[in-house]
């Protein structure tokens, strides 16, 4: 890699010779980490022309840097940052020249919330029981690549390059309206659908449009950590509703709630499914008490044991349910494509907010997904995922029973995870830390719960990212570690 000549410029206020200034520029770039070992510097002729100095001045500066082992020369190939050049110093936070009092300057704080820890190098671990990560052995890379190439063609040039302002890809919208939503019993017009940057962005848009500091949101406890963060940032009043074996109990929703956030088909993280009778009761309460419902239907495609229950939105006759869907779980999490479905007045406001923040999701990604879906590759991928997860589920069931681990919740129609209960006396955060040293990754339950329940004794085991062959030995290690901690 070559260092651009445009990164060099002379300082008129520099006290010293031009040669010294060039030496300082190069040495400073190396010591700051901007120039790295092996990178090629501009030729002495090119740098001299750029700076407006004589070539001999640059050559002398380079030679001095070579003498100090900052640079090396490869004959006619030019000058390079030496492999033996001094390494950039490890600067402490106090060495920064930043004099701003950020504790006072920051008006709204968005950091500090407890989230699920997922190492970026999770694939290096032998037993990754992590939720929501893509298994490269199952993903259809070849057809995705072909669709991406097709989306780059001249025919799709406008969808790729134009600023669509507030519009979405018409082909993607058509597929969602005609294929995806009807499978959940939902009928919607194009003006009732909005493409989002994943389900998290959909939840954020819904919260921003529906909630204020004077309004109240109710959500499940435990729940998806990202939702709790979104509601906290909205500064609305929050009510936590403890879930049971059938999900969120409608009778626990207090009067005065404006919006209820729920995961009825596959409660996050307990995996419980809300029965039809309870869904109808929730809708009755919504109509009676005049509140809206945001339904996060994040894993309905993974139904390999039996067909999933109809979406709550499909039972809604009053337009009170706002539906959140995503392709990230069935395709890959880095795709970041989801969608909101709701009444046209709500979608109009959500679209205006999205436009103000990010305009629209990338056109090329939308069109690639539209091709992948419409050409049948998506359905084939989902079938392959269901078959693989079904096989892994059988292995998980056998391994968990064999080693006596307690399952607190498992999806009735399938899914890709178990909600586990650790024995009394086990700190699941410590358990996760100890298992990580043995190349086992699990998800402690604390991140899913309110702050006053951080001693939560649950943890989540997912089997979407681990091969069937690794499940039994991985579960054995978890059981052995629990026994060791109880001694």
Automatic annotation (TrEMBL):
Keyword DNA-binding: yes
Pfam family, one: GntR
GO terms of molecular function: DNA binding; DNA-binding transcription factor activity; pyridoxal phosphate binding
Keyword tags: DNA-binding, Pyridoxal phosphate, Transcription, Transcription regulation
Domain HTH gntR-type: residue ranges: 16-84
Gene3D superfamilies: Type I PLP-dependent aspartate aminotransferase-like (Major domain), Winged helix-like DNA-binding domain superfamily/Winged helix DNA-binding domain
Membership in a protein family: In the C-terminal section; belongs to the class-I pyridoxal-phosphate-dependent aminotransferase family.
Protein name as annotated: Transcriptional regulator, GntR family
